[in-house]
């Protein structure tokens, strides 16, 4: 059975192609807003670039395994639609840049011809699911994780629970705990093969990891999970992230922050509660996986790499690029792809080599390289010769010169500096340096153009992320330097920050660190020494490279790599698109309501009637949440939210009234008729509320009762109510007052004190009093409505 996942060209996919083209035309004609179009194209894996009228499109390569047929199609597409270059990402996907906007529908259609998709390659969705590059085939793999990963990918794609996350969500699989080459340590959810017991296969599940501006390692949350429950586990985390992820602050909108804020014990408790709730449902029972006998079993042999030396006269290449498979005399070949970029012709050459000497399987790695599998001993000499002729027999694979870098400012709107330019400068500085070649084994340099971490700088032996500083009236491109990180081959370390250097001086800083290492005569390898050394020891070593001369003395340091001649460096970034409208909280809740209705319909068709009620209530709760947000209320319980909606919106003649059945207790045995009526009522309410809101947002205003008074003024006690809900409540009451009237409030210290008065002043009101009370725990706030207009 092929390990490659080819997505079926189903009726749903064909309808999606037509729908996407229609949405594009609606956007071009002005019928669809930019925000709505942005969200739709991000779902389709399409990013904007720095350059106008062209797009980057990210093609998913599920668990990093593709084949020659698919790669040849991508090569043809790069010639037809792009700049003839394919780029391997640090999530094993393949990106193409400079795709004309007009070509995007045809590009998406061309992918379907070979079972590929870009769906959910971007946006607030489940990104490409990655895996151990040696899954299924490598010596030391406990069992085959690929069939499980394949089911998780199929379950996740277009899943209604996974269409509107607070931010992106990443999963991975590893074939053994000792090496964890799927890098679970840095993922939202990572499944690691842990044991085989009485014929039962088990995973250790890690969760709550992530990189970016605040890297946090994942923790063990479920030990020895039966593989049959992998979909239930994944769905539980999808639900937790969707419900509890921070939608107000994009910088804290990853699952790692839920774990950090709750603490590990509460995080695990919430996961297990949701896991059990799902597993006990009819829907959950449908998620329990089954496998054919022997489907997950793997041979436990190990090919002898030393045999290859009799066929290939290049001992370094054999040592670094040939890996044993779990079958005698069968090997995997590691192919270095500098910066993850290769042309259409090179893609065809590699495809021909994979077919001729292997099984046609091609694997894309998070290190932006490639491996070719299933090469027999008698074919190793042939594959070496043809790789060498094509320029792909570089023996420095896991090496300091094999730099990983995101695309950076060459195309990305968020990048502050040129990551690829720095990577090329580093490699140029390493040329002809024999000592670098000697000490650089297994040392990783990773570069990101900003703090977000697409280049995985936080898990590198030496990592850089783009930054800047201003001297006088000139900006200087800089890089923050980190050391001692690592994932895979048994490593689970986040890098530690050493300090900032000027980007143009980063190669000198690396050289200085290596020279310092050599001066210590350490028994440790450079890779291990970077993990162990105290960063305080290195700070004075790199400090000179943060110093910047006056512009007249050294103008080059004020220019970024790959900067056009005559252009002045600016750290300004464009609009980021990862979140895709994350701050529109009302819209987010209404999107969630729609997604739960979709899931309710799905389980209705499967005749899981109790699950119809659960998902219909979740849809209603999110619709209520959207409405109540405008009243400064946030309620998590369904019936309480129902009652609050009635309280605040009964007087509103425009918004819909929920039908009585939606407030009834769910019967012990849910019948077809009850589920059908309930779903119909919920869908009607959600659709009607969305229609009213989209037509006239102001018409969806709630009614807020302010009968309580203090000293003759309407009074609000806002203690314990966080921003922005406290501001929303104050604004609603002020909207109902006559100009010139005053509103008295009590607010908390902290964000409430800093934000509520200033926000009301921006609305045109006057702050009459803002005094500390209750031993400085609160503030008395009195505001005059439209005070500025009445002066």
Write down the overall mean pLDDT: 93
SS content category: alpha+beta
**What is the C-alpha radius of gyration, as a whole number of Å?**
29 Å
- Distance linking N and C termini: 80 Å
Strand order of the largest sheet: 1-2-5-4-13
The main β sheet shows up as:
5 strands, antiparallel
What proportion of the residues is helical, as a percent range? 25-40%
Our count of helices gives: 24
Low-confidence stretches: 578-583
Molecular structure report:
With 791 residues, the protein is an alpha+beta fold. It is built from 24 helices and 27 strands. A 5-stranded antiparallel β-sheet has the order 1-2-5-4-13. It has a 5-stranded antiparallel β-sheet with strand order 3-14-15-12-11. Strands 6-7-8-9-10 form a 5-stranded mixed β-sheet. Mean pLDDT is 93; it is low at 578-583.
Structure summary:
The protein is α+β, with helices and mostly antiparallel strands and 791 residues long. 37% of the residues lie in helices and 18% in strands. Strand 26 and strand 27 form a beta hairpin.
Question: What is the fold's blueprint, element by element?
Answer:
Layout: H1 11-29, H2 34-43, E1 46-48, E2 54-59, E3 65-67, H3 68-81, E4 85-88, E5 94-100, H4 104-112, E6 130-131, H5 146-156, E7 171-174, E8 189-197, E9 200-207, E10 219-226, H6 230-244, H7 255-262, H8 264-279, H9 282-286, H10 315-321, E11 322-324, E12 330-335, E13 341-343, H11 344-357, E14 361-364, E15 370-376, H12 380-389, E16 404-405, H13 419-430, H14 434-439, E17 445-448, E18 462-471, E19 474-483, E20 486-488, E21 491-493, E22 496-502, H15 506-519, H16 526-532, H17 535-542, H18 585-605, H19 609-629, H20 638-649, H21 672-695, E23 709-710, E24 713-717, H22 725-735, E25 742-748, H23 751-762, E26 766-773, E27 778-784, H24 787-790
Parallel strand pairs: 6-7, 7-8, 16-17, 17-18, 24-25
Antiparallel strand pairs: 1-2, 2-5, 3-14, 4-5, 4-13, 8-9, 9-10, 11-12, 12-15, 14-15, 18-19, 19-22, 20-21, 23-24, 25-27, 26-27
Helix pairs in contact: 1-2, 3-11, 5-6, 6-8, 7-8, 11-12, 13-15, 18-19, 18-21, 19-20, 19-21, 22-23
